[in-house]
Recover the amino acids of this structure.
């Protein structure tokens, strides 16, 4: 028989191995969007939700394995700054700018690419017989873990107030009484920015604490008092080695160790992990998932987190 192989078969005629992916967050949909790179595996994403809801901004530094993200990135900064009461540190890179990506835009983009590649997105495992299940649902946090928690507003001002050429990754000129606290703000234009109050601590604070910190920062450091809140985002990221949700399933993304414990960054490492899964894929074999962080990196992260927990004033 001649002709092109069907979508669910490899060129040799062997049926593709059916893989179910639980959850439809960054890891699951990023993997599904790149399903054409897997000639021997057929993905089905299991997601009770039927659409992408909510939005966050994900930050990362541009790396070679992120070239496929460039077209969706909202903004990049070749300059960024870290500020303390006694020091301003300006950093820059021509080749590895800091990037902002809308969660909603990325997941919508991935959903469409996945569907175009023939990936089914269904609401349950009913009537499916996968040979392997990958679990991208959120992992479990160990008791007493240090937390990175934040509240942010995307705002518009009625006058030019922001410098869109420089991202402020950490500004420590704020209340330090509740933990390591900094303002993170990304200026998209001279009149629009995301401004977040972020803390590292073992306990959460009230929304009023974040709100006051943001308002104080805008008024006292940027002279911005007249603005409109267009969107808010809030989150809690455990800064620890997280426990896989179900030990008998293969975790991917955050559930597969992709979150960097010392920073809470995950997007870049999720994409790196998917590259590894694709590169290691073998016909007729279950997919192998590796932690994208080395043992040395995780050891150094643990030392850093121990210092933050015990001596936050340092």
């Amino acid at each position: 028989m001649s002709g092109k192989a069907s979508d669910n078969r490899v060129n040799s005629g062997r049926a593709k191995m059916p893989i179910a992916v639980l959850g439809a967050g960054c890891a699951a949909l990023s993997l599904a969007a790149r399903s054409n790179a897997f000639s021997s595996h057929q993905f089905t994403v299991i997601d009770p939700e039927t659409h992408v809801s909510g939005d966050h901004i994900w930050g990362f530094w541009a790396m070679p394995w992120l070239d496929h993200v460039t077209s969706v990135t909202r903004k990049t900064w070749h300059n960024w700054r870290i500020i303390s009461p006694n020091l301003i540190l300006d950093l820059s890179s021509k080749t590895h700018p800091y990037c902002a990506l809308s969660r909603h835009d990325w997941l919508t983009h991935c959903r469409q690419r996945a569907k175009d590649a023939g990936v089914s997105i269904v609401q349950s495992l009913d009537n499916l017989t996968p040979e392997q299940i990958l679990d991208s649902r959120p992992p479990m946090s160990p008791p007493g873990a240090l937390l990175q928690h934040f509240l942010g507003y995307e705002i518009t001002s009625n006058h030019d107030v922001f410098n869109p050429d420089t991202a402020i990754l950490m500004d420590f000129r704020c209340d330090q009484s509740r933990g390591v606290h900094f303002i993170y703000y990304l200026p998209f234009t001279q009149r629009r920015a995301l401004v977040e109050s972020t803390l590292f601590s073992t306990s959460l604070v009230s929304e009023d604490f974040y709100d006051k910190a943001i308002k104080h920062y805008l008024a006292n450091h940027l002279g911005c008092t007249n603005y409109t809140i267009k969107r808010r985002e809030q989150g809690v990221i455990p800064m620890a080695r997280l426990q896989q949700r179900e030990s008998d399933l293969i975790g991917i993304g955050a559930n597969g160790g992709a979150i960097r414990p010392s920073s809470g960054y995950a997007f870049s490492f999720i994409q790196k992990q998917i590259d590894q899964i694709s590169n290691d894929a073998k016909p007729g074999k279950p997919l192998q998932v590796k932690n994208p962080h080395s043992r040395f990196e995780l050891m150094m992260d643990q030392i850093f987190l121990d210092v933050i927990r015990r001596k936050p004033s340092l």
User: Anything to note?
Assistant: The helical segments are 26-33, 103-116, 207-221, 267-280, 295-310. The chain has five helices and 15 strands. Confidence is low (pLDDT under 50) at residues 1-12.
